[in-house]
Amino acid sequence: MMQEKNKARASNLCVDGQALWTDLMDTASFGKTPKGGIRRLTLTQEDKQVRDWFMQTCESLGCTVSYDSMGNLFARRPGQDNTLPPITMGSHLDTQPTGGKFDGILGVLGGLSVLRALHKSGYVTRHPIELINWTNEEGSRFSPPMMCSGVFAGVFTEEDVLEKRDRAGIRFGDELDTIGYRGAEPCGQHPLTAYFELHIEQGPILEAEDKTIGIVTGIQGARWYEVTVRGKDAHAGSTPMPLRHDALLASAKMIEAVSLVAKEHSPSAVGTVGLLENRPNSSNVVPGEVFFTIDIRDPDDAVVLKMEQDLMQRLQQIAQNGGVTIEVVQIWDAPAVHFDQQCVNIVEEAAAEGNYPARRIVSGPGHDAGYVARVAPTAMIFVPCKDGLSHNEEESITTAHAEAGANVLLEAVLKADQFFNLSE
Ligand SMILES: [Zn+2]
Fold this sequence. Notes:
- This protein is an alpha+beta fold.
- Helices cover 37% and strands 21% of the residues.
- Zinc ion (ZN) binds next to loops.
């Protein structure tokens, strides 16, 4: 039995789970918050510190580290044929202002534990192996998120990104120079054979089903809207109910419509109103104007489109009934991502061979892998996080899950090394 299983595996290597955990805890000191989380906004001194640590540690494992014109870091371990584009792993080391210790970081340090396992065993892959740290995944200091994997994939231009400013008015390009991570290689001129990203789920499904590994088949599609509802400010005491144009009352019904439309496309669709401004926001004034946002998502673009159509019809109807007007602007359209079938199968096999309980899953949030998938065969590996909590200082995972995820990453990389070489 045992022999049979080993035969199917690409190697008998395992990551050092204890060393991985030590790396996670040690690097958490760069931007550590009093509540045990991390504040490591992109291109800050804390970001520089963790980048310096990353470079030194990768070099000590026999890798050469370079960075491109957007500051994306590439730690390269040579293979037998260094003319082949690398098999790659990666994620991000930047965090939200009150971020946790694992979002993004697990993918980079998990990749580091793969490099460590290869280094210690002296295993030589056919392709070079690279570990990537993408600049500004979070989009918290400079918007939008996944900015530099976006440039890498040709979604945004380098010129636009360099001119982005944070809320203090500081230019992205200037901060990249300040921390010393603007490289000579033009971003995107770096072909990849395949890309695997390990990440925490940031949702409750794996934990609820007691699964260790999520085989991520794609990322759901999302559309965002800004809605302005206009009625008429009026005195709360003297304006009879039939004569009101109450923008907040109409908005309340619209918010419910967002929820209903999502539920009608259950179980996968979601719809959220998370931001609302009420004007003039005074206790004795019938509200004259309300601004709110809508976020709708589903793994199927056709469903997102159908939800949009249903929703717009209902919002118009509610506005008409309520004697108010409505203006809707679509501000973001992210089509669903479908990861490469071969890479997804490779992750599935890697999880099975490690005997980890696993299921296929679609990612709710966006990830760098979503953009990388436009330019290279890509898949992701999820591990559970406690209560599905993320973008929170209390974000928590177990050492066993971190190790399991990194082992699946290791096995996936080695399988891809064989698969993609044979298919050429
Ligand atoms: Zn992340």
